[in-house]
Task: inverse folding
């Protein structure tokens, strides 16, 4: 698998956690971010932080944690950003401009590519999320879709979901399933010929197992598997070793 | 926000956790699943389970946990499924059929809609993921894209990412930004006329602040905000109360 970065906007994204009560969640958020190429973490009045619980859950993402900026207010954490996105798990009755996670990623990329703006994505407390006053500082309300009958997304999980979606939005994934490895038409035809010869040789075809019909079914089966060159070589190796069965 | 379920395939998806060493991760996985409408959890030889740590992290998703099926082998956990997808965070050199998370969700829906097949998505141990022997039982290798220099996705986070992507793939999200609330052309024109009158009234326009130019800039500004009916009503209320400023 190769990831091709299309936009290189990762350094333009700031994750802001407001009044987080459980330091373990800060560590888990750092880990979630680093896994998805994000590194800028801002903490507004974190409870019991720094703490061993945060470091333990960060699991190798301690650089994100040690570079985290601790602030006294959300305003302070938003200084220098151009676009502010508030994250919410539940629907809000008051009318902010709402969008889903992909929509938010599109806005972040737009802000970066047209005006080199830094964006903040803001996450509230574990119990209640962002307050309406905090949301007033946001330009967009990002809603993470989910089960309408149970929405209790952990804050680090919400950051994981956003960070994943942001990476996917900004990269092209290529898998090493190179076309060249797939067998050519000629290689396949030559294999089917070989297969038919061997099946004749072992007297497989009979009146109620007619060659034409069975070869068609076998072609359908093998074609569906899209055999690679190496696989065809293995199958032909097997065919070579097949001896006619002694009829009793 | 309204979610419209397109496919209703949630009950066709089984999450399988193999040899999980940390029971807290099982609870976090149950919570991640329930948030995204999934409920079928299978546990192969979970260490130290059941445990208080699992229940604590499940946080309201205890029904998923109490319905979880504990198995002695991966084979047992896969009984009854038609499509088996192994999850991996890192690239594998051996050649399984690889795809990303969206690709896996497409295959799950295909299996469900064409043959009513149940699918399993299998997650390995925290430290090493799935072994090659376990992957041999899988039809597809699902790779979660991420930072090439640091890939250490927590197993519950990986389940969160898959479950989120599966929900997004299977739902249409609609926001309550109803078109009818947006002001009509006529309402906006009438507002601009009112605005121009008030600005004349307070002697705002001058030779170096020409009416035509400034009204064009104001129109551009207000149009970009796509004002809703209610917002135009608020703005007109303000205009009504504006008194000419006594020139000194």
Result:
């Amino acid at each position: 698998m190769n990831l091709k970065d299309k936009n290189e906007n990762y350094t333009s994204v700031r994750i802001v956690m407001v009044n987080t009560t459980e330091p373990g969640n800060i560590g888990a958020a750092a880990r979630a971010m680093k896994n998805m190429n994000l590194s800028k973490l801002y903490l507004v009045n974190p409870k019991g932080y720094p703490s061993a619980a945060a470091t333990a859950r960060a699991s190798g993402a301690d650089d994100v944690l040690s570079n985290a900026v601790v602030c006294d207010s959300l305003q302070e954490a938003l200084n220098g950003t151009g676009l502010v996105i508030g994250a919410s798990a539940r629907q809000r009755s008051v009318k902010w401009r709402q969008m889903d996670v992909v929509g938010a990623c599109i806005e972040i990329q737009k802000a970066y590519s047209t005006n080199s703006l830094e964006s903040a994505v803001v996450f509230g407390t574990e119990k209640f999320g962002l307050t309406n006053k905090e949301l007033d500082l946001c330009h967009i309300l990002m809603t993470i879709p989910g089960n309408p009958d149970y929405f209790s997304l952990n804050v680090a999980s919400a950051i994981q979901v956003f960070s994943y979606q942001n990476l996917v939005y900004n990269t092209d994934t290529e898998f090493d399933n190179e076309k060249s490895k797939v067998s050519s038409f000629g290689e396949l035809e030559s294999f089917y010929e070989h297969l038919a010869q061997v099946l004749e040789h072992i007297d497989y075809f009979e009146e109620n197992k007619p060659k034409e019909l069975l070869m068609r079914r076998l072609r359908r089966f093998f074609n569906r598997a899209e055999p690679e060159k190496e696989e065809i070589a293995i199958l032909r190796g097997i065919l070579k070793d097949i001896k006619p069965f002694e009829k009793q």
Summary: The two ends of chain B are 53 Å apart (CA to CA). The mean pLDDT of chain B is 90.
